[in-house]
């Protein structure tokens, strides 16, 4: 049997530090295990740990996913609270996550809870794991299959990292004596060691020329719909923005006043990035021109003022800022698809292939990869908001170019 979801979305989750008894009272009908004090305490600790990450929806969701899976496995498979698990049982759990039973796997994302007669109840369609397929496979008509579920190396690393933090929290609460995740010595049997540097996923300069030209053509044909599209595309590449830095969420709502001019007359764009850290991005002359065009279309003065609260990206209909990251993805995907068709019509199908699998984040990678060729990498690092220079170094291809140039001279018939 598939166990029921335990932890609702952040907006529906009462503060477990002060309202835990109310949470248990609502959950008891669907989770009889909570009548046991050990499991009740286990849930309270888990909820307090996860709720501590309520400053970021994405971080909360990631920590909830991993801890909730552990709770469900520990309770229903091991018949034990997570505070009683040993190192070898954590290893069993990792193996379980890598190959869960089909009953635990869904083929689409569904809500954990739904409204029933005024109360939030577990959604019977929800599964702890979801099988996914690539964007290209989906376009070709394929559908996810539960038997094909697999965890990526990044997902396995995230599981180790989050669960280690969880048990660190339990140690601080004196609920466990040691961290069983940290005691796993041979993580290499789960997580492979990667090559020195993974290839950065980006589109080529030719592909970008077609993409941005496509956006410009769309803006000329239907400015009411696509002037915003053109600005979004320029902002994603020209300022290396993540989607979360472009749309409004519970942490921030980007406005025109986030473009600011310093005493030297230089323009900057202020964003709230990962970890709730603010950063300033140097705005290029081309990006400034794109901003002016966009503001003229919206009947705004050419340049914003520091106190201007006009939403940076407005909704399609109604007032207020765009809040849907999915809508941005759809806008970018439409440009990619149209650019792909145009390249194929121009006889460049092989050059266009990457556009069929590219994602929004590839634009950030592309902008950084190009800028690091000509700008000091310290400047690019600050604009990109990288936590360390090692992350920025991934975008520098000089060593790889030289290595491949020397490798091309190797012969199959040594002298």
TrEMBL record:
GO terms for biological process: DNA integration; DNA recombination. Residues 375-385, 394-405 have a biased composition (Basic and acidic residues). The keyword DNA-binding applies. It is found in: Cytoplasm. One of its GO terms (cellular component) is cytoplasm. Keywords: DNA integration, DNA recombination, DNA-binding. PANTHER family: PHAGE INTEGRASE-RELATED, TYROSINE RECOMBINASE XERC. This is Site-specific recombinase XerD. It comes from Marinomonas pollencensis.
């Amino acid at each position: 049997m598939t166990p029921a979801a335990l932890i609702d979305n952040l907006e529906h989750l009462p503060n477990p530090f002060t309202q835990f008894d109310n949470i248990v009272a609502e959950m008891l009908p669907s989770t009889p295990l909570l009548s046991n004090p050990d499991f009740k305490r286990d849930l309270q600790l888990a909820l307090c740990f996860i709720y501590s990450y309520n400053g970021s929806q994405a971080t909360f969701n990631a920590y909830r996913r991993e801890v909730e899976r552990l709770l469900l496995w520990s309770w229903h498979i091991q018949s034990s609270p997570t505070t009683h698990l040993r190192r070898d049982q954590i290893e069993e759990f990792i193996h379980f996550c890598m190959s869960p039973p089909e009953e635990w796997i869904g083929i689409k994302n569904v809500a954990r809870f739904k409204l029933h007669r005024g109360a939030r109840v577990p959604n019977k369609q929800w599964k702890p794991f979801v099988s996914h397929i690539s964007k290209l496979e989906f376009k070709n008509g394929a559908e996810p299959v539960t038997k094909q579920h697999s965890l990526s190396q990044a997902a396995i690393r995230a599981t180790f990292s989050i669960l280690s933090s969880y048990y660190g929290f339990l140690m601080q609460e004196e609920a466990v004596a040691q961290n069983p995740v940290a005691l796993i010595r041979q993580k290499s049997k789960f997580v492979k060691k990667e090559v020195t540097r993974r290839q950065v996923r980006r589109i080529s300069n030719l592909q970008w020329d077609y993409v941005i030209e496509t956006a410009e053509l769309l803006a000329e044909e239907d400015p009411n719909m696509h002037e915003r599209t053109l600005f979004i595309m320029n902002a994603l590449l020209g300022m290396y923005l993540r989607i979360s830095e472009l749309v409004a969420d519970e942490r921030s709502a980007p406005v025109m006043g986030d473009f600011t001019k310093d005493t030297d007359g230089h323009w900057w764009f202020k964003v709230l990035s990962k970890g709730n850290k603010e950063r300033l991005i140097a705005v290029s002359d081309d990006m400034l021109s794109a901003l002016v065009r966009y503001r003229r279309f919206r009947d705004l003065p050419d340049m914003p003022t520091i106190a201007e609260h006009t939403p940076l990206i407005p909704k399609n209909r109604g007032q207020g800022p765009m809040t849907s990251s999915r809508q941005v993805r759809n806008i970018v995907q439409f440009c990619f698809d149209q650019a792909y068709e145009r390249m194929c019509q121009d006889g460049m199908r092989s050059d266009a292939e990457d556009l069929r699998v590219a994602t929004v984040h590839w634009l950030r990678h592309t902008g950084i990869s190009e800028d690091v060729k000509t700008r000091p990498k310290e400047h690019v690092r600050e604009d990109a908001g990288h936590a360390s220079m090692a992350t920025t170094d991934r975008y520098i291809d000089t060593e790889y170019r030289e290595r491949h140039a020397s490798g091309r001279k190797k012969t199959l018939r040594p002298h």
